[in-house]
Structure formats: C-alpha cells, structure tokens
Write a structure and sequence with these properties.
mainly alpha; NADAR family protein
Length: 161
C-alpha cells in the first residue's frame, strides 16, 4: 500500500512559498517560488518582469508578477516548469541542511501537495478528504509532490539532475 506525506501551506518546508535562502548561478533567491517565477519570465524573454521578481520580497508578489509575464505560452511553460521546480528545490534542500534532513525523513512515502484549489501542482483535495488516500481519486496531477519525491530519491541515490 502506497504511503503518503501530505503538505500544504507556507509553513511546510515542502511548500514553494516556504522561506529558504539559496543561490543558483550566483543569484540569490528567498524561496523556490521566486526561482520558478524568475525562470518563467526569462523563458519568455520578459527581462523587465524577471528583474522585478528578483526584487520582490514575498512569494505572493513573485507569483503575481509571474502571472503577468509577457509572451507566455502554456505548452512551452508546461514542457519546462517541472525542471525549474526541481532545480529550485535541489538548491533549496541541498543548501539548507535542516530542510534536507526533513526531506530525507520522508523516505518510503510519496510527497503530496494537499491543496484543495490547485489541481496542477497539487491534488485538488485537502488532507482531511478521504479521497486523498487513493491516487486514483485525486482531482489533480501533484506535479510538486512528484518533483519533490523524485528529488528525494535522487539525493538518496547520490545523484540528481
């Protein structure tokens, strides 16, 4: 029987919005959401918005700016976005040992974003909903949980993308 580690909200270290300083390519980020939105702006050539995302202090502001990226193409984004989330979380967890310990402690489970409103990155169900205990009854794709589970497995195996 598949076992799950459910998470939701900023307080969880698995949240894209959880505060965690890290660097990629000499650029500082304050959370995984900031990196994801920055890469979104860069992907579509919107350097102005990319700069604003880097100076935005909160994930709420970063996400709002990300929604305004000019030249957005859904298909192109969906082909790249999971890799960006993997990269952000790889840096977040490997550069913050206390967070890495929490991630590795989930070994043997599938990480699941128990967001009742997000059917792309989460499963579209809250943790208290009995349907969340069966992958077949999820209402969403759980992309964030998949990327975090893959990252954990890669780190445990001594490899990562």
């Amino acid at each position: 029987m598949e076992r799950f580690t459910f998470f939701y909200r900023t307080e969880s270290p698995f949240s894209q919005w959880h505060p965690a300083d890290f660097e990629i390519g000499g650029v500082h980020y304050n959370c995984a959401e900031q990196y994801m939105m920055y890469r979104k702006a860069v992907l579509f050539g919107d350097e102005e918005t990319a700069g604003k995302i880097l100076t935005a202090l909160t994930p709420r502001e970063q996400k709002e700016l990300g929604r305004r990226v000019r030249g957005f193409d859904k298909n192109q984004w969906e082909a790249q976005c999971r890799q960006f989330v993997y990269e952000a979380n790889h840096a977040k967890f490997t550069q913050n040992p206390q967070l890495l310990e929490i991630l590795l402690a989930t070994k043997g489970t599938t990480l699941v974003e128990a967001s009742p409103t997000d059917r792309i990155w989460g499963v579209g169900l809250e943790e208290s909903d009995p349907r969340i205990r069966n992958r077949a009854t999820w209402r969403g794709t759980n992309w964030l949980g998949e990327m975090l589970t893959k990252l954990r497995e890669d780190l445990l195996a001594g490899s990562s993308q």
